[in-house]
Write a structure and sequence with these properties.
It is a single chain. The relative contact order is 0.07. The chain starts with 5 loop residues before the first helix and ends in a 6-residue tail after the last helix. Helix 1 runs antiparallel to helix 4. It is elongated and about 115 Å long. The protein is of the alpha+beta class. Strands 8-9-12-11-10 form a five-stranded antiparallel β-sheet, with helices on one face. Strand 5, helix 14 and strand 6 form a beta-alpha-beta unit. The chain is built from 18 helices and twelve strands.
Length: about 425
């Protein structure tokens, strides 16, 4: 090396540092790249992404060639610095130690930390182009990489580790949910909301979104024909439940349009209704919405009646109710169903007793418990264990409220303090 010009040695040292930086940025960018984004690029026909995917499929080989090149280059740089130091200052131990510190500093700054920070920040832009270089390099150095990996695989076997199995780990639903939340800048707000609601279908049951039994629109098959005609003609829904003797005894469902088309002399007979009606479809209480959605598909039906463990009618669920959980509520509502809430001048809300707690939590920001009663009326009755008088004040889960109106053993209206005032304990 004494015949090798000093300037050429410094140039060679700079080249070695650049090569070390190349291997460092390659390692970080290949490991940090988003695998799902990479798959999307492959489907789009990106050649570099396809090669990168092939390399990542054999992580041990990829890391083997990168680390082999990186360590060889770093070792060569350390030896070259020692040669330069001896040539400039002799073989004094102090200068050799300073030369070692100098090359360590240069490698850390220019060949390790800086390239890796860049590789992690711009992995999707850097990894595919570098794959064109790494693939042929792996082909050249494969015999050495294969020999080194023999010892690596033996060590992993002794430690009872199987990296290939760990790489096959699938994302959990909660991880997918987090992924959707963090992708807010790339997914339209409405699409993000639908995806998040879709994840909730396994946790929400039919009890949470069904129409309560008292609000089901139904007709008595034993009613006079003229009455049947009037009820069907003025029905709000396209399908009507039919009961016999008592509202809990549902015997069928009819399509209003077909019933009206068959009516004669402005009357509909019970016999006509029996010929038109379909058998009712019952679903057990506690069924997850996603499961019920599949049941609707299998039964080719759009409506079911929810029953408890004793077979008692609890409510009614339609396909539209599930769709509303995904995309939001439609504009129209049945007159039989609660209208929801009404803002007051003082910031409070006048809420109908039959309002669903889930809706109040989602729309108004309250924190009512959802593991018990489903409606505000049921929550208050469970808390008080008696029918309250109008004007009764109470607090549930930090929310202050006042009973405004009761009727027929049911709370019809309640005044709720605004969510922002709940924490401070402001009275209604």
């Amino acid at each position: 090396m004494d015949d090798f010009p000093l300037s050429a040695q410094f140039a060679l040292l700079g080249l070695l540092l650049l090569l070390s930086g190349f291997f460092s940025i390659a390692e970080t960018s290949m490991m940090a790249i988003n695998r799902y984004r990479l798959k999307a690029l492959v489907r789009a026909g990106h050649r570099g992404a396809r090669i990168a995917t092939e390399l990542l499929a054999k992580t041990d080989r990829l890391l083997g060639v990168i680390l082999l090149g990186n360590n060889l280059v770093n070792a060569a740089a350390a030896v070259l610095v020692s040669v330069i130091t001896v040539r400039l200052f002799g073989d004094d131990e102090i200068f050799l130690a300073l030369g070692t510190l100098a090359v360590t500093f240069l490698i850390l700054v220019f060949s390790e930390i800086t390239p890796k920070v860049i590789g992690a920040a711009y992995a999707e832009s850097i990894a595919p182009p570098l794959a064109f270089v790494l693939k042929p390099l792996l082909g050249v150095l494969y015999p050495v990489v294969w020999f080194v990996n023999l010892f690596v695989q033996s060590l992993l076997w002794l430690l009872r580790l199987k990296p290939s199995h760990a790489a096959e780990t699938k994302l959990t639903p909660e991880e997918l949910r987090t992924l959707v939340l963090e992708a807010g800048n790339y997914i339209p707000k409405k699409h993000q909301s639908i995806l998040l609601n879709l994840f909730d279908l396994e946790q929400i049951t039919v009890d949470d979104v069904m129409t309560p039994r008292s609000q089901i629109e139904a007709i008595d098959i034993d009613a006079p024909p003229a009455t049947l005609r009037t009820q069907i003609a003025t029905a709000y829904h396209r399908r009507l439940a039919i009961y016999q003797e008592q509202p809990d005894n549902i015997i069928g469902v009819i399509l209003v349009r077909k019933a009206l088309s068959l009516s004669q002399d402005d009357e509909i007979s019970p016999e006509q209704l029996r010929a038109l009606m379909r058998e009712p479809y019952f679903a057990p209480s506690g069924t997850p919405l996603f499961t019920q959605l599949q049941q609707f598909q299998e039964h080719q039906d759009r409506l079911c009646f929810v029953v408890d463990e004793y077979g008692e009618l609890m409510g009614l669920l339609t396909l539209e109710d599930i769709v509303e959980e995904l995309i939001g509520e439609f504009a129209t509502h049945s007159p039989l169903q609660p209208g929801g809430f009404y803002p007051q001048a003082d910031g409070s809300y006048l809420v109908e007793g039959g309002s669903l707690l889930r809706e109040l939590n989602r729309k108004l920001g309250y924190r009512f418990p959802l593991d018990g009663p489903k409606t505000l009326n049921g929550l208050v009755l469970e808390h008080l264990r008696e029918i309250p008088e109008p004007g009764t004040r109470l607090e549930i889960n930090g929310h202050h409220m006042q009973v405004v109106q009761t009727q027929d053993r049911i709370i019809k209206a309640i005044s709720l303090a605004p969510p922002g005032a709940v924490a401070s304990g402001l009275p209604v």
